[in-house]
Amino acid sequence: MADLLLTTGESFDGYEVTEYLGFVVGQAVYQSKFIKGIAADVMGDSDQDLDDLNDCDEEVKNSLIKSAKEKDANAIIGIQMRYAELASGSFAVIMTGTAVKIKKKELIIPNVYKELFVTNYYVRLVPRPVKVIVDGSRDEVNLSVWFYNYNLDDINAVRADVELTNIYDEKLVMKGVDLVFDKGNVSLIKSDFVDCGLSVNDIKLLKDAKVIINKYVTPRGIFACNDTPVNVSMTTRRLEALKAKRGIDAVEKYRTDGMIWTCNCGHVNEAGNEECIVCGRKQDDMKVTTKFDYEKMIEEMREKEYVNEIKDVLMGYIKEIDNKYRIQLLEIMESGQMYEKTRGNMKESVIEKVEKVFEDN
User: What is the rounded distance in angstroms from the CA atom of residue 267 to the CA atom of residue 150?
Assistant: First the structure.
């Protein structure tokens, strides 16, 4: 009859209580000699005594279970047993507990989700991979690749190699991944999710992604892509800052030598072109409003060892820097010098903060 779970405790491993149904009692009255022995703690150890005791326990337990089933319970918690002597000289055996409904705890899969900007690009007008989404919120880990579609072609599918790199610089290369799209004729197309064979823990370690296009399909036909992609030259953090300001397809900072100019999309245009022939960005919109070359200053800072030396580099450029940045940069230096006395070398931390001042503005 014991098809309910029973415990003297308040819970069961691997289960959760979903409903408390109330107090339940099982009881029986006995006049047998062995009951008196129990009460007096002088019971013998004969086989007959043990058999009688087991029968007693089983009857009271079944009474308790019957009471719980009447409440539609599937478990009883907090079980206690007591013995009481009655006036007639007989004994009552009483078992009590709380009837409950329980269910197995569901395995909770952590919702791990990561967006990785693609760190390579194509100069030619092909669908440009810009972002890889890795999603571990389902029973398996899946990925989706986003492409910037400059021509607004109706892209049906892209076959590509996807390379994911973790913080240990270990690479996972998935060859010939078929990426399909529900809507392929918009500027930003997002592929359906596909299984990538990673674990949830792997997602946490990822740091960047590359996508190498093999071929893609439109209503006009199948197009092979034999171009060698260009690797983005800047750090991931600086790439993120650039995209935040210049758009998700941005991969290069604007620069010019008077004869040619490089667009944020990476295409090199002739000086006479006011707009990029690939993405349509206007050159005037990309020109930096200040002539200060902070990247040159950063390079000089990296050659130094300590914050006081880095501050000397800053002071050499301070007159060229816009007033709105000066106080913030000096505060970074003062803080870095102070912490360097107690925490050790602060060079990388200080340089990173200096870069962020210019990249966020």
Answer: 13
- Write down the pTM of the prediction: 0.60
Query: Is 118:161 a contact under the CB 8 Å cutoff?
Result: no
pLDDT tens string 145-202: 999 999 888 999 999 999 999 999 999 999 999 999 988 788 999 999 999 888 888 9
Contact predicate 17/101, CB 8 Å: yes
What DSSP assignment string belongs to 226-295? -PPPEEP-S-HHHHHHHHHHH-TT--S--EE-SSEEE-TTS-EEETT-SB-TTT--BHHHHS-SS---HH
Q: Please tell me the distance from the alpha carbon of residue 106 to that of residue 203, in angstroms, as a whole number.
A: 22
Pick the CATH number of 113-232 from 3.30.420, 1.10.10, 2.60.40, 3.30.450: 2.60.40
CA angle 147, 148, 150 (to 5 degrees): 140
Tokens of 4: 């309910």
